[in-house]
Hints:
Elements: E1 2-5, E2 8-11, H1 15-26, E3 31-35, E4 48-49, H2 51-59, H3 63-68, E5 79-84, E6 92-95, E7 110-111, H4 114-126, E8 131-135, E9 137-144, E10 149-155, E11 163-167, E12 169-172, H5 179-183, E13 188-203, H6 205-210, E14 217-223, E15 232-236, E16 242-249, H7 260-268, E17 275-289, E18 293-294, E19 297-299, E20 305-306, H8 314-334, H9 339-374, H10 381-392, H11 396-400, E21 401-404, E22 420-422, E23 454-459, H12 463-476, E24 480-485, E25 498-501, E26 507-511, H13 514-524
Parallel strand pairs: 1-11, 2-3, 2-12, 3-8, 5-14, 12-19, 23-24
Antiparallel strand pairs: 4-7, 5-6, 9-10, 10-11, 13-16, 13-17, 14-15, 15-16, 17-20, 18-19, 21-22, 23-25, 25-26
Helix pairs in contact: 1-4, 1-8, 8-9, 12-13
Amino acid sequence: MNEQNFDVVINGGGPVGMALAIDLAQRGHRIAVVERYAKPQPVPKGQNLTQRTMEHFDFWGCEQELRAARLVPRDYGIGGLNTYGALLSGWHYDFMQREMVRPYYDRDNERLPQYRTEAVLRARAAQLDGITVFYGWSGKALTQGADTAELVITHHKGEQPDQCLRARYVVGCDGSRSMVRDAAGISETRRDHAMKMVLLVFRSRELHELLTVFPDKQLYNVLHPDLKGYWQFFGRVDLGESWFFHAPVPQETTVDNYDFAAHLHRAVGKAFAVEFDYIGFWDLRIAIADQYRAGNAFIAGDAAHSHPPYGGYGINTGFEDARNLAWKLHAALSGWGGDRLLDSYDAERRPVFASTARDFIENFIEDDRAFLERYNPDRNLEEFRAAWNARAKGAPEVNAFEPNYRGSPIVVGGPAGQPSAKGSHVFDARAGHHLPPRMLSDGHSVFARLGRDFTLIALDMEDAEVTRICAAADKAGVPLEVIRDSWAEDRRDWAHRMILVRPDHFVAWAGDNGRDGADALAVAVGA
């Protein structure tokens, strides 16, 4: 059997696996990616990319390429809409207004089908010498030693003999039926909603014409009292013809025994011509692995967690997994991070997903169910109108969705708690939270100066205080860049004069004392 050696082997070259490979290769590591499909699969999922995700693409060196891959013209908005009864019922309000939190991130959000995103990541990976991609292969068996892991891969057409890829670490980014997760002995916990869902991919120019009444919208949720809070939702793939649609259907539904065109017409509230490109089914459930690490094996993305595509959380959560795990693997491979740092991947990322599922996705279902049971325009029009308009006035889920690592074992300071998807958006530099962008005195965003490793922001600080932290970094072999600037203008919004920023641009510590900062650095790298 042919054997090859790498630093990290990644089973699964979808968006999360390829992003992880890019992040690690940019740091100088040799990466193998095992991916069955030679081309991205043309199913329009994973469309909504948050401002935070676009910061990742800037870091990965392909933000502009991603924006150029957008199918809907740049001057057309990417907003969403909630409607009652049917799309054209007349009851509607804006949904998921992510522009409300734009000031707290360094990039605008984006929207395009996942297969276009994957193509951009594959092209970026091809530019990096450190990445070897085994297209047409799949992971077959995983074994682990004390300091190594081996993945046997098999050619899916059986045209070539199996190969053995040996590495310090193996990461499963191989989807909800993860081979790496199962081979590593990692169990998962599921919450089944006993709901069968259909995914329709179709073409209809008539539907585009009907929905010109909602300019600058690309996602449309339909709340119907018969569905008990579960969504029907349409999304544009392009501007004019291509669409996708998710909706509950009876458990006995098959491709041949159901009138899907009539289902679409009911959801829209009007008949229109339609041509189907794809009809598939999925079960509405939430699953989370009971651990994200087992020895030298890790899991990320859908291998670690899966949930219904409500609110656009899935692909963004996977990208954040990659960003969190990449710098920790890099630290371990480079000798300045150890097991405690690697364990923090699970300690930080798993509670964030659990919170995303509980506090947002399932909360959407429960909140919509309660609303639909309580209010109905056919029973009491004025009461319904008042409640519907109250819903339209705010977007609390957008402000509240602020994944953070409060209480993480590698974060120092800040209030007690545990990592969560639920937080708040402020400009304070809070330990365990994403660094809010502020302008430096040279007129550039601080994000233009943040390094690949740790960064210390020092605002009108005495040299002795900064030197204490730099000396601690030198002694531990931790790469540290320093940004010096004045304690003035909107940099005062950070509320601290020294901020230790992690490689994933979360705040490890914030304060005004160099000795505290040196101690915090040791904690932040798992010492």
